[in-house]
Amino acid sequence: MEIIRKSTRSILKRDFKKNWFAYMLAIPVLAWFLIFCYGPMWGILIAFKDYKPLLGFSESHWVGFKHFIDFFEGPYFWRVVKNTLLLNVWGIVFGFTAPIILALLLNEIRDGLFKKTVQTLTYMPHFISIVVVCGMIHIFTADEGVVTQLLQFITGKDYSSLLGYSSFFRSIYTFSGIWQNVGWECIIYLAAMSAIDSTLYEAGEMDGIGRFGKMWHITLPQIRPVIVILFIFAVGGLMASGYEKIILLYTPMTYDTADVIASYVYRRGLRESSLSFSTAVGLFSAIVNFALLWATNKIAKRNSDVSLW
Amino acid sequence: MSKMKKRVMSLLVVSTIATMSLAACSSNNNAENAKATSDNTAEATNNAGTNNAGTKNAAANGADAAVADLGTVIRGNKTPTQEQQDEVNNTTNDSYLADMFDQKLPSNYSAYPYKKDVTLDIWIPANSNIADMNNQAVKKQMEKLTGIKANFISPPVGQEADAFTLMISSGDLPDIIMEPERYPGGFEAGVNDGAYLDLTDKMEKNAPNYTEWRNSDETRRKTTITDSGKVLGFYGIAPYSEWTWFGMLIKKEALEKTGMEVPNTIDEWHQFLLKCKEVGYSEPLNYGSTYGQIFTGIINGAFGVWDWTFLDSNGKVQWGPAQPKAKDYLATMQQWNKEGLLNKDWATADFNQRMASAISAKTAVMMDSPDTMWSYWKQQNNIDFVGALNPVLNAGDKSATTYKNFERTGRSAAISTKSKNVEAAMAWLDFAYSKKGWEMLNYGEYGKVHLIDENGKPYYPADSYVYKDPDGQPVSTALDKYRMHSWPDIRDEHNSNPLIVAEGSYSGDIRKNWTENMDTSMAEPPITFTQDEASREGELGNQLSTLRGEYFAKIISGELPVDAYDKFLKEAKQMGLDEFLSLHQAALDRYNQR
């Protein structure tokens, strides 16, 4: 025991002597994590307190699980949890697969100019502010908007503004998200594809597999690690939801599909600045997210050789 | 050596990247509540260069032994000399001002110029119309007249909430805090927790003008005192209840085309809207929007189904959506919606979409603020309009609204427990409640911005800076630049808002007419809750408003039948409607005891 510890230390010492500069390079990153990620973690405690900024952290009164109980017992608890999960499930089913498909398609194109044009066009919307995007969605789905007209043409039914139908909300939310981010998210897959050894494709050619065969048997398995890791992250975000886009798009008409945890807490925050309550809800979401992340990681480990840890 | 250089360089690069990602990750995306509240003034966002409406600092600050009567030289004077301007702008002589209101404005200037050299730190949210708050014209004038220097500390626009929390938790508080009700749990909670001073015992001595003014009228006294009889801070209080600012607005041409009178009862409105549709307005009534205008008490009020809490004929608090005629209201709206009398996108339209349909040929009637529509209809598109009183159910009923301004307007201010200059801070704030303060804060500088007419009333001449800004800014910006639009003072909105008193503007007339001809007896006064009550009230209120919004919108759109209302009422009761009402009732009883 003693010997091992010593040797570890001496190994470390030696390694530090040899690679001291690499250690130096890591310092800013480590410092950043310590100061900005681990430092504020004590703040979680206010979920169990009745936090008052002036009394500060230590002086505020403990209230135990009061805020959690308030949240769990609220009449809309199940609805907002369900909506949060479902919106994210839609996001994974459609939003996660779309960039992979786009990357596969772009990868097949040999014409540089056309490829570049498509890439630029698809990743441009990523840089538009969410408020502007929501303004565009409002216009496109208004009763005389492009999307609405198209839908009327296809179905032959008469629709008013699409944002007024709760059954359309998830589609609008998800597909506008895809439109905005698909080009951006496919860059990482394209990068992974560019690293694939071209001899594999040549071998495939010899074996006489066609284009789709190559995609299925060579490209996809080669970028599988990237896909799995990103998928684990995506599942770890199932209970997370940004409220900005939701509150810009939802109305009382669509609450039953659009009201998520974050927007519900936000509305509550309008009436009273309830810092402790918001923290409690955030903590609850984070715990669920972590559990999901852990489970997904375990499954990934069991079924493939790729995992986060 | 070169290896070393390389290493230093790469270390630099890595640190830079780290700092950059740090900045990106820790930037707090604080989407401040983007609710488009219809402001009383037309919206305008642009920034003027700093403006120094500085008169030469004429040394006229000596306390005059005997105050000369300036009435004869200033009243009716259209071209005051520099000397006369200095006399008005730099001294506390107010002998030329008339008494315009039911109660006399206080004129206690004994504290000015202040005996000590003091600079006050004041936390105040920035105004996007003003480039540099510390260079605001009126602020500088106040320094001159009171002899107390003020240093404004303003957080970046849009980050007020975070900045406020940070300031409070740091414990390092300035002398004065504007908008103290931002404190979690409200103003009184801030006093109880020791952030703000309780000024009850100091008011009489250090704020004679404010004390006199708040006690000059029962409503003013009641709304500026707590349930337990404390005076916490300085509130904006008006000489009168300000006018109602939203209601039914009809395009003049729609009246001409239909040949009909301005409708009054719900049935007349129905006939009128049908006729409008006949003559070509495809969606005659612009009804509702995402920011809650579906509930304005304008149409629902006719059925007694007020938006939220109100007082019944016995003075007890009731909840509008639970009133007996709610089903009639919902059935009527469902019917109108079916007949195509409402804009198709009423459930989803945002402010810009509403304004776009307002100026289109589809719309005949808007439910909005005449000030806003003055800008969109009249000024930008030359569409004339008239205001209609809120509809009533039966001919002969009196129009009513639950909107009432209880003479409380503008801003509030508190003095922090950390202030070392409490007396000076009170004197500085108190100036705004004197007659001179009323003139300077509402009407800006004498000579360049306002003049005094024959009767001693301040007015804006045609070439006033608020109408003809040397920097070319529009009136909606100038009203913040040359005067204090929202302040803990005696706000004189009706006479001093340049948009209302502008030549030819009739939005003020419409508002005045509404206010004088509508019953406001059911309006709930500005009650206050205790800290425990406030959090429970917030929770229940949020749940009830979600429920109401959802059911009402779905019933009106026809997605649910009118009978779904029964289910709504049952759910509201299960949620705790009775508890919610009892919280309001308790707070109201305390308010009445004040």
From TrEMBL, chain A:
It is a multi-pass membrane protein. It comes from the Bacteria. Coiled coil: none annotated. Pfam families: BPD_transp_1. GO terms for cellular component: plasma membrane. The keyword Chloroplast does not apply. The chain crosses the membrane at residues 21-48, 85-106, 118-140, 223-243, 275-295. It is found in: Cell membrane. Keywords: Cell membrane, Membrane, Transmembrane, Transmembrane helix, Transport. One of its GO terms (biological process) is transmembrane transport. Residues 81-296 form the ABC transmembrane type-1 domain. Belongs to the binding-protein-dependent transport system permease family. This is Sugar ABC transporter permease. The lineage of its organism: Bacteria, Bacillati, Bacillota, Bacilli, Bacillales.
From TrEMBL, chain B:
GO terms for cellular component: ATP-binding cassette (ABC) transporter complex, substrate-binding subunit-containing. GO terms for biological process: maltodextrin transmembrane transport; maltose transport. Residues 1-23 form the signal peptide. Residues 31-57 are annotated as: Disordered. It holds the Pfam family SBP_bac_1. Belongs to the bacterial solute-binding protein 1 family. It comes from Paenibacillus rhizovicinus. This is Extracellular solute-binding protein. The lineage of its organism: Bacteria, Bacillati, Bacillota, Bacilli, Bacillales. It comes from the Bacteria. SUPFAM superfamilies: Periplasmic binding protein-like II. PROSITE patterns: PROKAR_LIPOPROTEIN. InterPro entries: SBP. GO terms for molecular function: maltose binding. Keywords: Signal, Transport.
